[in-house]
């Protein structure tokens, strides 16, 4: 059996794959395009340390108070000089979220940090179990992600971006219990033209009607993403 890479080990720990036995047993060539793009590409290992990746975060919507904050990934060289060990700073002050350091990153852990906080927020809102939410997201990335290629602006110039969209709870058998989240949509934006490969992530929970304001929108974008992009709908 092929030994898992450090990135795969981190992924399994963070998203609870140890509890999803059928998925662990899948052959390497059975990973979806979305899984490979989000979790398995060498987005960090090709960078030149030391450096810090900066992301801006915004929460809006009618459900709770809005706020803006930031997420930083501090990258340093490993003992052999290769990139990179990652030390996260997820939010600031009293809002800061403790996230694990990664000793040998390849895939961008900012994606996993965003998802782990998102899962904790869903647990807070619904009293549901984190492993169940992890499973729904993971299954949606594997089975139901839609892809479209778009051109977005980064530091004043257009860049090619792959958008992967999922709706993990639309066909959820537990939907009546988590109805508040049923229409929640996730959009992951990946681009080779930005450092770390992650252009941004956006989630949206729509209100009771199409005309209603969204209950919650949470967005995290690489520093330098166009302000107009940050404000558009999923």
Largest sheet: 8 strands, antiparallel
Which class best fits the helix and strand makeup?
Answer: alpha+beta
Counting DSSP H or I runs of 4 or more residues, the number of helices is 6
Spell out the helices and strands N to C. Answer: HHHEEEHHEEEEEH
As for the number of domains, it is 1
Taking all Cα atoms into account, the compactness measure Rg is 17 Å
Q: Could you give the order of strands across the largest sheet?
A: 3-2-1-8-7-6-5-4
Distance between the termini: 40 Å
- Write down the overall geometry: globular
**Uncertain regions: pLDDT < 50 for 5+ in a row?**
1-27
Give the rounded overall mean pLDDT. Answer: 84
Strand content: 25-35%
Number of strands: 8
Can you give the helix content as a percent range?
A: 25-40%
Protein name: DUF1571 domain-containing protein
Structural account:
This protein has helices spanning 6-15, 21-24, 33-40, 109-126, 130-144, 227-230; strands at residues 51-60, 67-77, 83-90, 146-154, 157-166, 185-190, 198-205, 216-222. The chain has 234 residues and is α+β, with helices and mostly antiparallel strands. It has one domain. It has an eight-stranded antiparallel β-sheet. Helix 1 packs parallel to helix 4 (109-126). Residues 1-27 have low confidence and may be disordered.
């Amino acid at each position: 059996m092929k030994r898992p890479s450090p990135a795969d080990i981190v992924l399994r720990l963070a998203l609870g794959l140890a509890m999803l036995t059928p998925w662990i047993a899948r052959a390497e060539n059975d990973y979806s395009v979305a899984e490979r793009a989000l979790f398995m590409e060498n987005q960090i290992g090709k960078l030149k340390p030391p450096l810090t990746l900066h992301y801006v975060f915004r929460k809006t919507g009618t459900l709770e108070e809005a706020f803006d904050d930031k997420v930083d990934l501090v990258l340093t060289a490993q003992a052999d000089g290769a990139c990179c060990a990652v030390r996260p700073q997820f939010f600031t002050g009293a809002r800061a979220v403790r996230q694990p350091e990664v000793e040998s990153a390849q895939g961008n852990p900012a994606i996993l940090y965003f998802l782990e906080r998102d899962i904790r927020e869903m647990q807070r809102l619904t009293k549901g179990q984190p492993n169940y939410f992890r499973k729904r997201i993971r299954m949606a990335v594997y089975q139901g992600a839609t892809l479209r290629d778009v051109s977005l602006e980064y530091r004043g110039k257009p860049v090619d971006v792959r958008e992967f969209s999922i709706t993990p709870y639309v066909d959820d058998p537990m939907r009546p219990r988590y109805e508040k989240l049923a229409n929640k949509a996730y959009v992951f934006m990946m681009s080779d033209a930005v450092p770390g490969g992650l252009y941004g992530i956006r989630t949206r929970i729509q209100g009771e009607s199409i005309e209603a304001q969204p209950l919650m929108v949470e967005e995290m974008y690489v520093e330098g993403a166009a302000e107009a992009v940050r404000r558009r709908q999923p």
